[in-house]
Amino acid sequence: MAKNGLGKGLGALLSENKAASEEIAVSTGGLHSFNIKKSNLPSCIEVDENGGLWIDPALLKPNPKQPRVDFNKKQLEELCDSVKANGILQPIIIEPVEGTENEFYIIAGERRTRAAKMAGLTKVPVQLRQFNEQKKLEIALIENIQRSDLNPIEEATAYYNLIQMGDLSQDEVAKRVGKNRATIANAIRLLKLPEDIQKALAEGIISSGHARALLMVKNDADMRVMFGKITSGGLSVREAEELAETYNNGGRAATSKKKKAAAKKDPDVANFEQEVKNLFGVKEVAFKGSMDKGSLQISFSSRKDFDRIYEILMAKKAL
Q: How far is residue 35's CA from residue 41's CA, in Å, rounded to a whole number?
């Protein structure tokens, strides 16, 4: 029996028994596999007549490299109903917890395991494998991405951890998970957002498009103002992008507030300005101060406008 495929933890767990005759193949998670005698399997693992492995889901622990943190309760309940009706159709991939006899990490299939526990199952189908730390993360990440189970921050964190752990480039990660490099780069950029904004994105309060628009804003104070506008439900993604450009070009939030306040004028003043506009045929008239003391500014856009204003004033003066 080949021993080269055995890792330290699995080798200690599955000791050789020369008296046993039946063997099954166990994958290492790569291109290689090794054979173990059924009698050498832990007592908590059962083998059916087709060579399938079964275990009590209570003995399965979450993958320490699982990128997903949040599990949707409603979706789990729906999966639980399916499990009650049809059982677990796809084996859960597990590996032994080093230094223990009856504990196993879930490498892929945590949702199925949780649903099985909710459904009250005492046995679930498994595949016994062994992976290095990088491979654990990679497999869990790919499984979740294929099922669209990760929120944007979980996905971004998983990409970042994969790069750090494996000393990989963004191109290499993109090839391994079946994405393009731009997708990886854009995802990781989300981790530059403040923690509370990341939390809002993870919880679905804002969208990835809103998050990318917030990343466009250069000034932190402006980012905060825009985040407030988004969470209040007042900005679409396109409007957020336009506002980010406005802020970056000098149109600060404080300036916008002043303009908004200035728009609230006394009705008499507003009527007076309109009468002046009508008299001189211009589009902009600004009255500042009060009826007792102030100034009146008449804007014109051409020499023709100026001449018309001059003639009207002189005509009034002649009267």
A: 11
Per-residue pLDDT at 7: 35
What strands lie across the sheet with 92-96, from one edge to the other?
46-47, 53-55, 124-128, 92-96, 104-108, 60-62
CA–CA dist 251, 193 (Å, integer): 22
Q: List pLDDT tens digits, range 178-214.
A: 788 888 899 999 999 999 999 999 888 999 999 999 9
Give the whole-angstrom CA distance, residue 167 versus residue 173.
Answer: 10
pTM of the complete model: 0.48
Catalytic amino acids? 110
Q: For 156-230, where are the E strands, in sequence order? A: none
Q: Which two tokens stand for residue 125?
A: 């189908």
214 close to 197: Cβ distance less than 8 angstroms: yes
Crossing angle, helix 208-216 and helix 237-248, to 10 degrees? Answer: 10
Q: So what's the pLDDT on residue 65? A: 65
Q: Per-residue pLDDT for 70 more than 70?
A: no
Q: How many helices (H) and strands (E) does the chain have?
A: 14, 10
Q: Which residues pair with 155 in a beta bridge?
A: none
- Tokens for 269? 């003043």
Angle between helices 181-189 and 152-166 (to 10 degrees): 110
Give me the residue label for tokens 């889901």: 57
d(CA 156, CA 176): 15
Residue type, 46: E
User: Rounded to whole angstroms, how far apart are CA atoms 110 and 193?
Assistant: 29
Tokens for 224, please give them. 């905060």
Is the four-CA dihedral 147, 149, 150, 152 of positive or negative sign? positive
